[in-house]
């Protein structure tokens, strides 16, 4: 391995670590990475969020992982927290759905229907 390759790996690792820093960031993306989540593709989902956010130059987003969210049948699961919007848990999140979540929920401030597995009741949604 060359010195330049090592530097590239170091820069990529630092970028991954910086995505987990919460200071100054208002949006959170939390990927379920229990054994069920990992087995269903959670690592690919986590990587896809990093890739999409970077590609679209979306800042202010913390991407982190957690254990099982209790929705094993719907893995990989992702919780998204955006100020002024209800917290939402999405299920069956593959890289294609990641793009929808970034474009619609994070950037467009609209919930992504069809993949919502947990969200507030309709009266709470109407109040927001």
Low-confidence runs = none
Cα distance spanning the termini = 53 Å
Largest sheet, if any? 5 strands, mixed
Structural class: alpha+beta
CATH structural class? Alpha Beta
What is the third-level CATH name, the topology? Glutaredoxin
Rg calc: 15 Å
Number of domains: 1
Q: Residue share in helices?
A: 40-55%
- Give the topology string: H per helix, E per strand: HEHHEEEHEH
Quaternary structure state of the chains depicted? single chain
In terms of topology, how is this protein built?
Layout: H1 3-19, E1 27-32, H2 35-39, H3 42-55, E2 61-66, E3 78-81, E4 88-90, H4 95-107, E5 116-118, H5 122-127
Parallel strand pairs: 1-2
Antiparallel strand pairs: 1-3, 3-4, 4-5
Detailed description of the structure:
The structure is a single chain. The protein has helices at 3-19, 35-39, 42-55, 95-107, 122-127; strands at residues 27-32, 61-66, 78-81, 88-90, 116-118. The chain is an alpha+beta fold and 128 residues long. The protein has a five-stranded mixed β-sheet, covered by helices on one side. Strand 3 and strand 4 form a beta hairpin. It is globular, with a radius of gyration of 15 Å.
Question: Main traits of this protein?
Answer:
128 residues, alpha+beta, Glutaredoxin, 5-stranded mixed beta sheet, 5 helices, 5 strands, 43% helix, globular
């Amino acid at each position: 391995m060359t010195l330049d390759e090592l530097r590239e790996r170091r820069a990529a690792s630092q970028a991954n670590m910086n995505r987990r820093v919460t200071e100054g960031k208002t949006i959170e993306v939390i990927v379920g990475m229990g054994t069920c989540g990992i087995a269903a593709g959670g690592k690919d989902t986590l990587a896809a969020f990093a890739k999409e956010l970077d590609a679209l130059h979306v800042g202010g987003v913390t991407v982190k992982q957690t254990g099982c969210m209790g929705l094993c049948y719907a893995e990989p699961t992702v919780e998204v927290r955006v100020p002024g919007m209800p917290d939402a848990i999405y299920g069956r999140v593959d890289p294609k759905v990641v793009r929808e979540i970034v474009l619609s929920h994070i950037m467009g401030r609209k919930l992504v229907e069809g993949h919502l597995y947990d969200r507030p009741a309709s009266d709470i949604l109407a109040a927001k």
